[in-house]
Specification:
mainly alpha; two-stranded antiparallel ribbon; 6 helices; 2 strands
Length: 128
């Protein structure tokens, strides 16, 4: 519960602002990792590697299996056979198309690098 000392008046909105909430938000934001100041090739590749081997792998499982599942869903829509490698190439081209419109969008560069890496690995598995 807040006391009058824990609040300030927002005259624009005409409501009280809970200072404890602002303090808690500051604590949360302090835990967010800092983004690199420069967006370099190393940043792109390192970030892509962390995503495809970390959060994305945890969220979606094995990339090869996931891309094959996507290929199986796309095949009847497209009316042609689609491989997991085709999926990696198409997803990469999706990112390239977006970069044509927004070339400074960092996430698209990182995602494209990740799709290329996964596609290279998958293509080599398919050839074996």
């Amino acid at each position: 519960m807040t006391t009058p000392d824990d609040e300030i008046q927002n005259d624009v909105l005409g409501e009280q602002i809970d200072l404890g909430c602002i303090s808690r938000l500051g604590t949360i934001l302090a835990q967010v990792p800092e983004q690199p100041a420069k967006f370099t090739r190393e940043t792109v590749l390192t970030t892509a590697e962390q995503l495809i081997n970390g959060d994305r792998a945890k969220d979606y499982g094995d990339a090869s299996e996931n891309f094959q599942r996507i290929a199986n869903l796309w095949a009847p829509i497209l009316g042609v056979e689609v491989t997991a490698t085709d999926v990696a190439l198409c997803l990469t081209q999706l990112k390239v198309a977006r970069l044509i419109t927004s070339p400074a969008h960092k996430d698209s560069w990182v995602d494209a690098a990740g799709y290329i890496a996964l596609g290279g690995e998958i293509a080599n598995k398919e050839q074996s």
